[in-house]
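Request: Not sure, any thoughts?
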Amino acid sequence: MQWLEHLFRFYVKASIHVAFAVIAFMFLTVQFLNISLEINLLYFIFFGTIPAYNIIKYGVEGEKYLFRRNAAQRSTQLVSLLGLLIALYFGLQLSLNTWKGILVLGMLAACYALPVFPKRKNLRNIGILKILIVGLVWSGTSVLLPVLEVQGKLSLDVWIELIQRCMTILVLMIPFEIRDLNYDPEELHTVPQRYGTRKTRIAGILISVICFLLTFMKDELSVFEISMKALILITMVLLMLFLPKVQSRYFSSFWVEGFPIFWAMVVRSSSDLF
């Protein structure tokens, strides 16, 4: 069964799991905003997420990532290149409005990963700003792009969904911030470094509650959406309450990143009941 373990590690390390999580968020957008699913955009986001996330993840060691010789790294490079080529193919089918959104999100991601400031290597080295940029890129990709592709109109409900998605991602980043607490340099000033893990968890719970309450500000609201977002609220609160002080190897990188996939599966299976 060793090959299964290697396959699992590759699945996580090559950011394929992350790509499924982004697609799951996109599916939630389609369900909650009642818009159509554009298949070209779905493939573009899935395959584009893999190289984009790998570049960001390994960007701090760009030279090592490009020239390292071990088999695992070469496999990740190959998957990233293949994903980029497939994403470009499907990207050619997208509308001009969608590409405007992609360019804006791409610039945010570049500022996050690349050394754009003289005194700071990149935005990932500015604690609180770092998680805000991640939240904006993920929420913009999974909310704004699907809307821009099918209708191009950003209604109040779309903006509320965007804010809720960003808040959800901020909460899901807390386990990663706490996991890295012992490894991040003090000058990063991450949220757990500034306020401690207990206050950070409490903040996560408060953000989760506010995120849920924003649902009732929507113009078009259904019992289905309220029920599903209540489920999201409950799971995020439980995550904050029972987040282990010492995490297992794949707790954040697999289980926490798998939350959107779990939510999408529940939403899909429950849609016929409402």
